[in-house]
């Protein structure tokens, strides 16, 4: 089968490369000429651990290429739509890129060849029907006869996307077309049976950890599949907001949130995942998905009040971290604050809609001078936050020089490995706020720092 993937972002580039590795000739479509050129030269258009070598390998094997045109759709068996679906100011989903992709696909479909169009992007319930109607109108072809639309949501974790794409916990296929489901079953067969993985041995260093794991292929209708992605992310957001509220309670009561979360996680009904304290959830998925599913639920008179509460609680957690800094420094006017970490988590360069944007913005409003560092995310953060007057530093040590406070927002390993005796000498006032409780084992208080975590005593 021949695969086409529309979009070369975090989902599209990983998905397209994965199917090339699984043995399918794959073409990625993107309107950005720079990204197309990079892929065709074997260069990854995004930062994702392990992806660059995989793209290079597949391009050299002539199984992966990129283009700016939709001509390749005519020969395709499966076309993935993996374009951006940003949120509008009111929380609803902006589907203009999905609509545009559907229109272009419809203009290039082969009328004598059955084609499966797959919604891989996170989209609201009913988008499969929307895509089908656009393609029918543009092409004049009949849905479920000449083509079919399938919902196949992605569950890739940035920083672990290669691992997740080859060893997923579940694959969701939503469609009312038996023919389309058979095509998708064939497409995922090499993944389910773990075939064609041999050539990836040098890249899949984590493969041995998944030797005994099984992937569940679950088939349902399109609307249920579309909803599964949203409610999954919303539930995880609720879980994070909950443990962050518990951390605030621990601060008030003198308890230790690390021990509390560990004890909770021992209950198999709860589990230990997503019980790690932070300054709040953020990034390109959780804020967008929670806002969109909340907007959708309100539109249909079935408001998800728990999701609404989680969103409100998350903003409160951002503010709580700022209040901690204020309590330590009293006034933030003209104080120098060093912020380490701009991405929403380590091992990604994704700095879209992160907690850093909110917290740094508030610090600036309170009169602080802010210096920042991030190993991978500074370029995107600067592009996304052009209005913030901050100093970008190539080294973390440069950010902390002369600082009245150091705020760790993202738990990159290199921050734990810094020479903290040097950090102590360079800082003006040795206050450290560790919003991840990541530095606790370093015993910074013994070095003379005024160290503070979240929910720690």
From TrEMBL:
Species of the source: Paenibacillus aceris
Determine if NAD is one of this entry's keywords. Answer: yes
What's an example of a GO molecular-function annotation for this chain? Answer: UDP-glucose 6-dehydrogenase activity
Q: In which pathway does it act?
A: Nucleotide-sugar biosynthesis; UDP-alpha-D-glucuronate biosynthesis; UDP-alpha-D-glucuronate from UDP-alpha-D-glucose: step 1/1
List residues of the UDP-glucose/GDP-mannose dehydrogenase C-terminal domain: 338-441
Judged by the first EC level, this protein's enzyme class is: oxidoreductase
Q: Which PANTHER family match?
A: UDP-GLUCOSE 6-DEHYDROGENASE TUAD (PTHR43750)
- SMART domains for the chain: UDPG_MGDP_dh_C
Q: What InterPro entries does UniProt report for this protein, alphabetically?
A: 6-PGluconate_DH-like_C_sf, NAD(P)-bd_dom_sf, UDP-Glc/GDP-Man, UDP-Glc/GDP-Man_DH_C, UDP-Glc/GDP-Man_DH_C_sf, UDP-Glc/GDP-Man_DH_dimer, UDP-Glc/GDP-Man_DH_N, UDPglc_DH_bac
Lineage, uppermost ranks: Bacteria, Bacillati, Bacillota, Bacilli, Bacillales
Q: Which reaction does it catalyse?
A: UDP-alpha-D-glucose + 2 NAD(+) + H2O = UDP-alpha-D-glucuronate + 2 NADH + 3 H(+)
Q: Keyword set for this entry?
A: NAD, Oxidoreductase
Q: What is this protein called?
A: UDP-glucose 6-dehydrogenase
């Amino acid at each position: 089968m021949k695969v086409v993937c529309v979009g070369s972002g975090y989902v599209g580039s990983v998905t397209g490369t994965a199917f090339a590795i699984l043995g399918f000739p794959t073409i990625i479509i993107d309107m950005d000429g720079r990204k197309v050129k990079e892929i065709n030269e074997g260069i990854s258009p995004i930062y994702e651990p392990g992806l660059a070598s995989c793209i290079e390998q597949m391009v050299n094997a002539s199984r992966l290429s990129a283009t700016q045109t939709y001509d390749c759709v005519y020969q395709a068996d499966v076309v993935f739509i993996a374009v951006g679906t940003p949120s509008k100011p009111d929380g609803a989903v902006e589907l203009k890129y999905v609509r545009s992709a559907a229109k272009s696909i419809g203009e290039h479909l082969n009328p004598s060849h059955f084609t499966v169009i797959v919604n891989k992007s996170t989209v609201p319930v009913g988008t499969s029907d929307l895509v089908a109607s656009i393609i029918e109108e543009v092409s004049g072809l009949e849905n479920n006869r000449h083509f079919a639309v399938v919902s196949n949501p992605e569950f890739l974790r940035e920083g672990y996307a290669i691992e997740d794409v080859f060893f997923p916990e579940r694959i969701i296929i939503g469609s009312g077309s038996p023919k389309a489901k058979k095509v998708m079953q064939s497409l995922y067969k090499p993944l389910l049976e773990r075939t064609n993985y041999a050539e990836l041995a040098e890249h899949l260093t984590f493969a041995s950890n998944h030797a005994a794991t099984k992937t569940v292929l679950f088939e349902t209708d399109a609307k249920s599949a579309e909803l599964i992605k949203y409610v999954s992310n919303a539930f995880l957001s609720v879980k994070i907001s909950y443990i962050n509220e518990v951390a605030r309670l621990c601060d008030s009561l003198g308890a230790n949130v690390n021990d509390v979360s560990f004890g909770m996680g021992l209950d198999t009904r709860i589990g230990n995942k997503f019980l790690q304290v932070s300054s709040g959830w953020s990034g390109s998925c959780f804020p967008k998905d929670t806002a969109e599913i909340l907007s959708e639920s309100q539109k249909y008179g079935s408001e998800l009040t728990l999701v609404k509460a989680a969103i409100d609680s998350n903003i409160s957690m951002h503010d709580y971290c700022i209040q901690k800094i204020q309590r330590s420094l009293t006034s933030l006017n003209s104080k120098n604050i060093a912020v380490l970490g701009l991405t929403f988590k380590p091992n990604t360069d994704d700095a879209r809609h992160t907690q850093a944007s909110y917290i740094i913005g508030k610090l600036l409003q309170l009169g602080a001078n802010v210096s920042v560092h991030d190993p991978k995310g500074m370029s995107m953060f600067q592009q996304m936050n052009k209005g913030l007057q901050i100093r970008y530093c190539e080294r973390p040590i440069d950010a902390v020089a002369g600082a009245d406070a150091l705020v760790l927002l993202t738990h990159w390993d290199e921050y734990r490995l810094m020479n903290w005796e040097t950090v102590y000498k360079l800082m003006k006032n040795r206050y450290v706020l560790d919003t991840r409780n990541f530095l606790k084992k370093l015993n910074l208080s013994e070095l003379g720092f005024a160290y503070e975590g979240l929910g720690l005593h």
